[in-house]
Design goal:
This protein is of the alpha/beta class. It has 20 helices and 16 strands.
Length: about 500
Amino acid sequence: MLATACTFSLVGVEAREVRAEVDVRGGLPAFALVGLPDAAVRESRERVRAALANSGFTFPQQRIVANLAPADLRKAGPGFDLAIAAALLAASGQLPPGALERVGLAGELALDGSIRPVAGALAMAEAAGKGGARAIAVPAANAAEAALAGGPRVVPLERLEQVRLLGTEAEPEARDAPARAVAEPEHPDLTDLRGQPFLRTALEVAAAGGHSLLMTGPPGAGKSLAARRLPSILPPLSEPERIEVLRIASACGQRAEPQPRRPFRAPHHTISAAGLVGGGNPPRPGEVTLAHRGVLFLDELPEFSRDALEALRQPLEDGRVVISRARHAVELPCRFMLVAAANPCPCGRGRDSGECECPEGAVARYRARLSGALADRVDIAITVGRPGAEAMASGPGEESRAVRERVVAARRLQELRLGPGRANADMTALEARRHVELDRAGRRLLAEAYERLRLSGRGHERVLRVARTLADLDGAGTVSASHLEGALALRSRGG
């Protein structure tokens, strides 16, 4: 007898529908599992066998063939256990024929028959809705996460024997989480940053336009402190952005909070290129995807490997990563703000301090670790000096709340101009020229700066984007020469 159950396979951060086909017929007892399974999927045969026996079911002593279709898609992970077990029960006559109709199933089986949570429940619920399923049965621990998709009915299962209830009036129902007030996520406040007015301006402009930022300066100047306070002035996530962040967290096995904050990722400089942008087999998201709609902070930028840094070029430009393998390609979202900090030289004191003893060659090699191609993709590059004693003894600076209000107002103007979820950093070259109309003085200033700073075509466009953000912060409809001067200052010098 043949039976089929619907389940799902994670491909990057998306879920693809998989059909678990189980055929039970006479012959010598055997259990074959086909359909490009990895080791974790092949081992499901033993988990299913023990779980059925410990849940009051009978394991058929016949020839069993389980196929995971489509056969050309590699299957990974233990999330297919529940669907294979349910299809096996239906094929052996231990479940009613219509119990699995239009029901998606996902879950890992323990040997005692309990059902363990799996990664990607949110993406699976979305895929079930697109496939026309009436319900999706998931581990009880994943029920709240799957319900965030707003798709088909979520059926929470704690034990394998509960599959008997599918399609009946006694089918389990997901319980609503107790209502509680959701406080605004707390971040370190910008008041801690003292004596750095130019750095504060750079942070505000970067947040307002979604621009990438590179800070160069000696240790203790406040670079890391400023970067970790950047999320406190970013606008809250919109509903589509919230779902994107939740989907990625779910696919990576992280707990999906109903009200997530913007991600802030700060990987160590020993990370590999695959760990930073994604990779592996099957391909898994990297730090750039985990930072989607948030901030990726690279402290001590020149200490990262050249391969890892060069791998950032496509994500910064396109807002996505494409990982190609022999059988398929996986596209991962990664629209993030890159914030990086670097020392001026290996010792950190800098040649201008009079205390640096680094050889000229060592300084050149240190700075060469950041290639010109990658540096050209950074919108704002400033030099941060060590604050004086008087500045450090002064009172606290402006609060994040006040800065955030200006940032939100500027982002609102950009969304009206460019569309929902888009900021000035996302403008194409054509959009930058369309929305940044310079007068004669502005055109002359930009032409002089183009020659003096030896800007590339990409650098020219990024200056225009930053100038547009400065105009948005001022509430100005047009970009003036003063806005252009401010954009050039944020790309060529510090304060």
